[in-house]
Design a protein that fits this description.
Radius of gyration: 14 Å
Helix content: over 70%
Low-confidence stretches: none
Largest sheet: none
Distance between the termini: 44 Å
Order of helices and strands: HHHHH
Strand content: under 5%
Number of strands: 0
Shape: elongated
Number of helices: 5
Structural class: mainly alpha
Length: 77
């Protein structure tokens, strides 16, 4: 409870938004690594999401694009 309160006050976001921000940062690293060639589901689960729907929704909210579009951009580069 205390950690959540500190995050709310100092970062102006909820505990879950804070955690998801770091999950998405890790997902971006994994999706950007063309040598790994992980599936979207593998990335979602590796980053702590329980399902693809919540991963897609959170990724789109943070990055402004879907994980599939993001990955396609890096695979084309």
């Amino acid at each position: 409870h205390h950690a959540s309160q500190v995050i709310n006050q100092h970062f102006n976001m909820s505990f879950f938004d804070y955690i998801n921000k770091y999950r998405i940062e890790e997902a971006v690293k994994l999706l950007s690594n063309t040598r790994l060639n992980l599936s979207i589901s593998e990335v979602a689960y590796d980053c702590g999401f329980n399902n693809r729907v919540s991963f897609y929704k959170t990724f789109k909210k943070e990055m402004g694009t879907t994980p599939t579009e993001f990955k396609a951009h890096y695979m084309a580069s």
